[in-house]
Specification:
Number of helices: 7
Largest sheet: 3 strands, mixed
Structural class: alpha+beta
Number of domains: 1
CATH topology: Arc Repressor Mutant, subunit A
Shape: globular
Order of helices and strands: EHHEEEHHEHHH
Length: 176
């Protein structure tokens, strides 16, 4: 079966980790829990992309989609329930926005290619979804800061789900 597919410029977990670490360093974000909504609403438009805007849409406008990043239009669109759940510290909504921020930062037109034919396997390091998921986890759970934590502690202190905490602890132990 052949279909169109987006692929990204190859990027390793280490490279993505360096980007998320540099964001934390550049803006002096030392605490474990990343101030995601404040970053997206205030820091991103003031210091990174002055044209950026966050759009909030209703469930009726986005019935099958929680969020979408459109870097070429300088925006991230969030469904209203996701937006409000971020303020309620709901881990899935936080991860959703961090994932879209990953697309926004990593996947500009220069970094994405559309394959007209796709008949096989795309390695994870070229998969935009893998890259955005990795970006989100690396941003929310900073490498090296939680090595001696349990997954429950990581979830609590970083504001992520137990599943995200477990994945990051496993990746941190690999050192990859």
């Amino acid at each position: 079966m052949s279909e169109n597919l987006l692929i990204a410029t190859p990027m390793s977990r280490a490279a993505i980790r360096e980007i998320t670490s540099s964001i934390r360093r550049r803006f002096g974000i030392m605490k474990l829990k990343f101030p995601l909504i404040e970053f997206v609403e205030f820091i991103l438009p003031l210091f990174i992309d002055r044209d950026f805007h966050l759009e909030i849409r209703t469930k009726n406008e986005m019935p099958h989609c929680y969020a979408q990043a459109i870097p070429e239009e300088h925006k991230i669109i969030l469904r209203e329930d996701v937006y409000y759940n971020i303020y309620r510290s709901e881990p899935r909504s936080i991860l959703t926005l961090a994932h879209e921020l990953g697309h926004y930062i990593l996947h500009t037109r220069e970094n994405i290619v559309v394959l007209n034919r796709y008949d096989g396997f795309i390695p994870p390091y070229q998969d935009p979804e893998w890259q955005a998921n990795t970006f989100a986890r690396e941003l929310l759970v900073p490498y090296g800061k939680v090595l001696n934590f349990t997954s429950g502690q990581v979830a609590f202190y970083c504001g992520v789900s137990n599943q995200v905490a477990e994945i990051q602890l496993k990746e941190n132990k690999k050192g990859s």
